[in-house]
Amino acid sequence: MNITVFCSAFALDERYQAPAREFARQLGERGHTLVWGGSDAGLMGVVADEAKAAGAKLVGISVELLRHKAYSGADELVTTADLAERKAQLLARADAIVVLVGGLGTLDEVTEVLELKKHGLHDKPVVLLDTEGFYDGMRTQLRRMEREGFLPRPLDELVRFAPDGATALRYAEGADEAGTPADAAAPA
Questions:
Q1: In terms of Cα–Cα distance, which of 26, 13, 19, 182 is closest to 100?
Q2: Listed residue (23, 82, 80, 14) closest to 48, CA to CA
Q3: pLDDT, tens only, 115-157
Q4: Which of 76, 20, 78 is nearest to 51 (CA)?
Q5: d(CA 188, CA 169)
Q6: Handedness of CA 108, 117, 78, 40 (dihedral sign)
Q7: Angle at alpha carbon of residue 172, lines to 10 and 61, rounded to 5°
Q8: SS3 label, residue 63
Q9: 3-state DSSP call for residue 16?
């Protein structure tokens, strides 16, 4: 599978790096291709290094303004003109999307992917690796949107929240489609 990963390009604390490395290692060991933002910086570089070391093929989708941070060890590196084109390419190349911790860029990417899925423009699995409860606030907001009628589909059809890398990968691979609901990993 081509698994697109959205995550931070900033150097982060080990408590965020370790789960990202574990996820990337398993991704490579299971023969998947990593499709990501193409950067060697921060968590993006950590994920790329670990996935490559575990045997994954790497497809980077960079953007012209960040070309200087491109990962030199990618099997394929595409440079897009702007961020909108980059997001479109990341989604187009994906069989599944896994979101690790990240900032505004990551939030922008995941909300666009969820909006497109909400409208039926793709039906790829979207999984948030909820390291250290990082996405608790997002989960709470999405549950409220579901409760109050803002989502035309059940939340667990739009996105799954995974407590660890192994679960995130299992959800990305399509396992547990009818399993636990999206918010099962967190208290109500």
A1: 19
A2: 23
A3: 999 999 999 999 999 999 999 999 999 999 999 999 988 999 9
A4: 20
A5: 24
A6: positive
A7: 45
A8: strand
A9: helix
How many Cα atoms within 13 Å fall on the side-chain side of residue 117?
24
Task: Read off the tokens for 79.
Answer: 């440079």
Q: Where are the domains of the chain?
A: 2-172
Digit-coded pLDDT (tens) for 62-114: 999 888 888 889 999 999 999 999 999 999 999 999 999 999 999 999 999 99
Query: Of 155, 104, 98, 156, nearest to 131 (Cα)?
Result: 98
Contacts of 96 (CB under 8 A, 6+ apart): 1, 2, 3, 4, 124, 125, 126, 127, 172, 173, 174
CA pair distance 40, 134, nearest whole angstrom: 23
* Fold (topology level) of 2-172: Rossmann fold (3.40.50)
